[in-house]
Amino acid sequence: MRRTSTETKSIILSAARERFAADGYERATIRSIAADAQIDPAMVMRYFGSKEKLFAAAAEFDLRFDALADVPRDQLGSAFVRHFLRQWEAGEALQVLLRTGITNDGAAERMREIFARQLAPRIAALTGDPANAPVRAAMISAQMLGIGLARYILRFPPVVAMSEDELVHWLGPTIQRYLTAD
Amino acid sequence: MRRTSTETKSIILSAARERFAADGYERATIRSIAADAQIDPAMVMRYFGSKEKLFAAAAEFDLRFDALADVPRDQLGSAFVRHFLRQWEAGEALQVLLRTGITNDGAAERMREIFARQLAPRIAALTGDPANAPVRAAMISAQMLGIGLARYILRFPPVVAMSEDELVHWLGPTIQRYLTAD
DNA sequence: ATTGATTGTCAACAGTTGTTGGCCTACAGT
DNA sequence: ACTGTAGGCCAACAACTGTTGACAATCAAT
After folding, report:
1. Comparing C-alpha atoms, which of A75, A74, A98, A103 is closest to residue A88?
2. What is the location of CATH 1.10.10.60 in chain B?
3. What is the tens place of the pLDDT at every residue in B18-46?
4. What integer is the mean pLDDT of B42-57?
5. Distance in Å, residue B51 CA to nucleotide D10 C1'
6. How far A169 CA lies from chain B's nearest CA (Å)?
7. Mean pLDDT for chain A overall
8. Which CATH superfamily is domain B5-58 in?
9. Is the CB of residue A167 less than 8 Å away from at least one CB of chain B?
10. Which of B104, B165, B170 is the mutation pick for testing A, counting most A CBs within 10 A?
11. Which helix (H) or strand (E) covers residue A11, if one does?
12. Which of A29, A87, B52, B75 gets the highest tally of CB atoms within 10 A of its CB?
């Protein structure tokens, strides 16, 4: 067949995202990604240069915290939890980052960057407390990454079994406290 | 040199733990482990049979939650946090599990097992609420794994910078709530 | 119809991986 | 001194990895 280069590129990209999310950086081989995309491995190299660069392209994304801009202050905790849970389920993005961030230094760096650049400023704006925003953001990241880890990666049965509402019920007050305490 | 087989075996084991903790399952190669232990890669195979079995041996450990047996009920949260933090820092055990559990299915299974077998029963005993113990244990695991992830693996600067006391200050009430709420 | 560029295929490379079998060396019991 | 056993080392294997270069097929513009 014959496609435009941008088509093929995006086919490769989504295959790469799935593989990275499912297998992590090392086990997601270029050959397996190419096989999923039904494409020659050499094409992956042609369009992305190297595995590192392919990964960099696959791990780019936006957590869209701007959606929380006009939530009443006392409901921020629940809103944050719901927003995060949907981000976990929407795309493979967060799963890619978590699976790879643990063995790949570049991915860990990317993760730090995303949370520092996207979450901390939002929290500074929402709480009007810029001084403590990085710590609050870090605590919230830790809690939400922990839940994602338990639910989507390690698959702890009780966490998998919980509904979104139950999770909000448990986590909402925690996040609310991390946002406002002290 | 010449050693007893049990000596060499334990030398290999501790080298393996370090490598698995630092690099994860895939990147911790038998050759690199053998090099650390200053022995021939073939010896690893002789004594452990395969990489899988070496890993199984390296990932065996005890979270020692029994140490929390006689903590006053209202201080359980802080005690849990302190205990966990020390477990993270004491040996490489938790880091091994987390680094590998994310790419290796066997390790994920082992992790579920450890938390279900060691944490949940303890919580059932401590709270006198066996029905909700698995959920509470899972929530606590998620929070503490999240912190370990942010502090020791992803190295989020604000989390790395916090002292043990600060972490207890933030996390203690959360864990206390997961233990007693509802 | 002939170009030139773009998309795709194929085969091979050099390096690394887990794993294996043969061989050497030290030691204990005779 | 001789021998059996157990610890240690070396070289090689087959499979797999990322990556590369040469070559074929397809299209658009002249």
Report:
1. A98
2. 5-58
3. 999 999 999 999 999 999 999 999 999 99
4. 97
5. 20
6. 10
7. 95
8. Homeodomain-like (1.10.10.60)
9. no
10. B170
11. helix A5-27
12. A87
Within 10 angstroms of residue B127's Cβ, the number of other Cβ atoms is 15
Which structure tokens are listed for A181?
């305490």
Assigned token pair, A14: 């989504």
Task: State how far the Cα of B127 lies from the Cα of A105, in Å rounded to an integer.
Answer: 40
Distance of CA B19 to the CA centre of its chain: 15
* H or E segment and range at residue A59: none
Q: How confident is the model at residue A6 (pLDDT cuts 50, 70, 90)?
A: very high
CATH number of the structural domain A65-180? 1.10.357
CA atoms within 13 A on the CB side of B111: 28
Q: Which distant-in-sequence residues (6+ apart) come within 8 Å of A179 by Cβ?
A: A76, A77, A80, A123, A126, A127, A136, A140
DSSP assignment of A79-92: HHHHHHHHHHHHSS
Please check the confidence at residue B1 and state whether its pLDDT lies above 80.
Answer: no
- Helix (H) and strand (E) counts in chain B: 11, 0
pLDDT digits (tens, 9 = 90+) for B65-113: 999 999 999 999 999 999 999 999 988 889 999 999 888 888 899 999 9
Query: By mean pLDDT, which of A73-87, A91-105, B29-43 is the weakest?
Result: A91-105
For residue A92, which of A55, A53, A123, A137 has the smallest C-alpha distance?
Answer: A55
**Which chain B positions have a beta carbon within 8 Å of A139's beta carbon?**
159, 170
Task: State the pLDDT at residue B155.
Answer: 96
Confidence of residue B182 (pLDDT cuts 50, 70, 90): confident
Q: What is the token pair recorded at B163?
A: 């002292």
